[in-house]
Amino acid sequence: MADFYQNGIVTTLHNLSHRPLEELENELRGFSRTRPMSLVLPSLFSELEGEALPNIVKQLHGADYLSEIVIGLDRADKSQYEYALKFFDELPQHHRVLWNDGPRLQALDAELKAQGLAPKELGKGRNVWYCMGYTLASNRSESVALHDCDIVTYDRELLARLIYPVANPRFNYEFCKGFYARVADRKINGRVCRLLVTPLLRALKKIFGELEYLQYMDSYRYSLAGEFSFRKDVLNDIRIPSDWGLEIGVLSEMHRNYANNRLCQVDIADVYDHKHQELSYDNEDGGLSKMSIDISKALFRKLATQGITFNTETFRSLKATYFRIALDFVETYHNDAVMNGLSLDIHQEEKAVELFAQNIMKAGDAFLDRPMETPFIPSWNRVISAIPDVLEKLYNAVEEDNKEYGSI
């Protein structure tokens, strides 16, 4: 059972009583009459053939309070898109599949690219951005949840707890971040959050002081969780990265746009496990190695907007400070694991810390060498300003794809 402690400057909503799912969903049905809800699922086609997504779809049958489910489908050809339409057809809720690689959405992407408004990288950020645009275009919901499609321990209570804070009309939250203990198969997981993000934030505090932004980021119990929910108006003005800095970028945007009392985090699962990335020691363009570089750059970019100045000496000091703090965390997590009868390999943990320390320097070098790098995707407000009928075009493209290749 979670504690009731409020850490940091963002409200934490705990799981203190293991309230029955039936009670939560009954309330959500009531909320849906005045604050309709939708779910966004960014997916790779390969996830349709995995073990997690079929169970997620089965679990979602009971989430009858949802007005719409929006599925973003990446890396799919025509036959795979047709397969996806049949795969998701069992969902009882109104739903649409965005064929991101299809000719209609590719044509729209080309139109955006011609004006410098299209996402610059393939990946989850781009997928989520187009799903956000479609959610605005469909206008079927006021509250929106988003979670990954590779959660092998998925139970629809996760969704109910995730969307409840922004769906309850008596709450004033615009955004909610999910968190959970990354423990599965008697191991402590979540290396990038445990061994990179938290010690890096603490190191940045040591060097630059207790900046409000650093306190804010350090308030989140699992900042890299791919599960969050928000009110629909958030979608208009948010700028998200297209790389692995997505989650850090979203949190930074919420800090920029809203007061802390409009933001919260919620405990959504006792057990959580999903697809694990390799560390990729020898490949900085893949796995957790690329992730650590992108995340570090996202933090450096945000701090630069706060007036912080970086140079080579700064990054050298940051690396050394981070390294010492991270090694202390390895001991902390090892002791926590031992007391709970879990396994944790100190050698592998310290190898990860060594890799992340190197990548902090690489991220710093990239930040200094390419000061004009702009990985953020433009906000939908900006895109609509440039192309006033863009949401209508996006909506029609998705509808025509579903009509041509589906059974509607």
UniProtKB/TrEMBL annotation:
Keyword Transferase attached: yes
Database matches in InterPro entries: Nucleotide-diphossugar_trans
Keywords: Transferase
GO molecular function, one term: transferase activity
The protein's name in its UniProt record: Glycosyl transferase
